[in-house]
Amino acid sequence: MPNQTVALLSTVDAGKAALDAARPLPPNTVASLREKLMLEWTYHSNAIEGNTLTLRETKVVLEGITVGGKSLREHFEATNHRDAILYVEDIVSKDEALSEWQIRDIHALVLKNIDAGEAGRYRHENVVIAGASTTPPDFLHLPAEMAGLIDWYGQTAPMHPVERAAELHTRFVKIHPFIDGNGRTGRLLLNFELMKAGYPPAIIRKEDRLAYYDALDKACVSSDYTDITRLVAESVQRSLDTYLDVLGLRHAPGFIRSNER
Where do the annotations place ATP binding (predicted)? Predict the structure, then answer.
């Protein structure tokens, strides 16, 4: 692993250590930070896929208000994503191991009220991904591919949680098991793995979409996960910084940002 990535992961771990040392956190602070990150995660993940709701519009939709001029699908994409986050939080809290059933359940929530026939169902046709250098496997191979993903997940040698989350995300996206909603589902799986390890969610911003797609493409083609790991680590660090700033812990002893090294 390049020294730059090693240093970034060390910075992330220092931030997590500072945050963990401050636990238990004030309940109202935890609730407000969770709401903030859930909103930003929902907004950016949907925006990456073309949803045109603004951050503020996403907020009011999640509060139950209809936004004029926006499609019903865009409204459902916001509320569905929120519900999928709640489900991920639930399985993380129960310390459940990742399974195909959970992946299907996450996807079913992502497509709820949008495409009932495909929600939680592996695709029954072949697809190509515009702009990608790899072609997803034949739909007939999906059961074996997904079983292989769970097998890899269960047998992977110990690795940094951010690396593991980035690789899980990439492997899932490469399989592309569903007709629609793979990106959102993949980012939910990414954060399932991070949250399970005690990290805040990585929010990949819509303005980083090109770098994100390039990093994913590189990893899918060459199995070089350096770029996608770095992008995920930077996203986790931003979420950690949000916590540390609110708690006044950004400059806690032992916490050194990578640009201060």
Answer: 180-187, 212-213
CA atoms of 254 and 239, how far apart (whole Å): 18
Convert the pLDDT of each residue in 85-143 to its tens digit.
Answer: 999 999 999 999 999 999 999 999 999 999 999 999 999 999 999 889 999 999 999 99
Contact yes or no for 187/204 (Cβ under 8 A): yes
CA-CA distances (angstroms) from residue 201 to 67, 118, 233? 27, 27, 10
Which residues are catalytic, by number?
Answer: 176
Burial of 243 (0-12, 13-18, 19+ CB in 10 A): buried
Distance, CA of 22 to CA of 5 (rounded, Å): 26
Query: CA–CA separation, 48 vs 69, rounded Å?
Result: 20
Whether the Cβ atoms of residue 249 and residue 19 lie closer than 8 Å to each other: yes
Is 217 assigned to a binding site?
Answer: no
Please tell me whether the overall predicted TM-score, pTM, comes out greater than 0.90 for this model: yes
For residue 140 the two structure tokens come to: 């007939």
184 labelled as ligand-binding? yes
Q: State which CATH number among 1.10.3720.10, 1.10.3290.10, 2.40.128.30, 3.30.70.360 fits the domain covering 9-247.
A: 1.10.3290.10
H/E/C letters for each residue in 11-22? HHHHHHHHHHHC
CA distance 226 to 115: 35
183 labelled ligand-binding:
yes
Domain locations in the chain as residue ranges: 9-247
